[in-house]
Known about the structure:
The structure is a homodimer.
Chain A: E1 5-6, H1 30-36, E2 40-46, E3 51-53, E4 61-67, E5 70-75, E6 81-87, E7 92-93, E8 106-109, E9 113-119, H2 131-156, H3 160-177, E10 184-186, H4 191-198, H5 202-214, E11 218-221, E12 224-227, H6 230-238
Antiparallel strand pairs in A: 1-2, 2-9, 3-8, 4-7, 4-9, 5-6, 5-8, 10-12, 11-12
Helix pairs in contact in A: 3-6, 4-5
Chain A binds a DNA duplex through residues 158-160, 190-192, 200-207, 209-210, 222, 242-244.
Amino acid sequence: MRHAIHNPPGEAGCSGCEQQPRCLAGRFDEARREQLVSRLRTGIRCLPRYPLFHAGDRFRYLYIVQSGSFKSWRLERNGDQQVLGFHLPGDVLGIDGIRNGTHTSAAQALQSSRVCALSLARNPESLDGLSWFNAGLLKAMSRASSQDQEHLVIMGRRQATQRLAMFLRRLRRQYRRLGWPDDELTLTMSRADLASFLGLVLETVSRLFSQLHESQVLEVRRRRVTVLDPERLRQLSEAEAVSG
Amino acid sequence: MRHAIHNPPGEAGCSGCEQQPRCLAGRFDEARREQLVSRLRTGIRCLPRYPLFHAGDRFRYLYIVQSGSFKSWRLERNGDQQVLGFHLPGDVLGIDGIRNGTHTSAAQALQSSRVCALSLARNPESLDGLSWFNAGLLKAMSRASSQDQEHLVIMGRRQATQRLAMFLRRLRRQYRRLGWPDDELTLTMSRADLASFLGLVLETVSRLFSQLHESQVLEVRRRRVTVLDPERLRQLSEAEAVSG
DNA sequence: CGATTTCTTTGACCGAGGTCAATTCAAGGG
DNA sequence: CCCTTGAATTGACCTCGGTCAAAGAAATCG
């Protein structure tokens, strides 16, 4: 059945995890990491569409993406959903729940993925003595905040082409950071999700891809996107902003 | 001269500060707060336009707004600025600098204001034993993240009227939370700043205000806005989203 | 206090992108 | 293997909001 979480058969915590260099909890030596063991569940498998949490859920865990990808969104009163972000390995999910113990956004897997769950719900004060961890957490949250700000900048620029170009360049940067090939991008989100994320309608996104294909900037085969002309993509992303 | 910081004449730390119930550092008893004293400079006065930090500045302090208001923004390569947020008493500024020690956004006062500066730059690990404070900091950052998400939702909806309506309702909520009158709103930002924040051009914002005035929803006299018909404002903010 | 600057409003025009609708393509299930 | 279903593409049309321009209202300064 879909939508199920399977416990890992015999994964042994963080040892061997590829994401260690990027991970909030992995940046530290084994001894330190063991201090977290009682709070950390590693390698939880999520099938596509598996929801980590919904808006309104009680805050229980902070999730660290280990592999795969996720999307997060807010649901409006009128049933309309606004995609807030796409999340790759190393990203932390669920931050919005810390504030008052309730999630205000939702998150689900876009493909088969793994996450680690970090229990923070009860007495976060007991992180005392784990200040090394706290510092890491602060940085992770600061990073999440920066990403939101980048997103806001994209949403502020009006030209649709520019938005998509900015998004693709940002994605390339993220892929590169993860050591993945950054010329052959495999999008894990639908046109609808991407459109929502960019503040456009899906038809527009589709047309833009066709256009950029036509003009030899990209090679687009559905969700397989190859960047043919990175320089032109840069120009498009930096085009003079609408005067706003 | 403008743009100057004046040290407070004789303010004695947090005692007597109106923002205590909302403040990150103020929620705790005097004894605890004294633990922070070496890291905390309270009641720093900022004249209008005084910049707390610029993009690229080395991260030194986290700022807590005590009175007045601020705006934060990112400057793009082409000189265009995207307003990221407006900040009222109790808000924390400078979070984006924690990540790697450099600010990626800028912030400045919109009016005569006061902030408290909290030194976090060097060895944040030394916050050990201040876990009560760390927990507060986490919540403050979570709150900032929620606000960014609300902003993203506004930017995602296309209809300009809806954006402004959502913004005004959000502002009302914030004013109420601060114990200020929420029917007579005094905007502290220019039309241009508000337009950038909402992803519109200033002419559009100006026209929207005129329209809402015309239709008896608001009374607008430049930056003095009175909400005449809150119910209608709610309807406008919740109107069916563009299908996107 | 008059002069200059800055902020805001208003009008006329028009194009980017949203709307509606139909078609094509790919994948998964019985 | 075909059929169903959902995702993506493409086209025709039209509106919302951006552009350009000018004038009025406040604020600032010498």
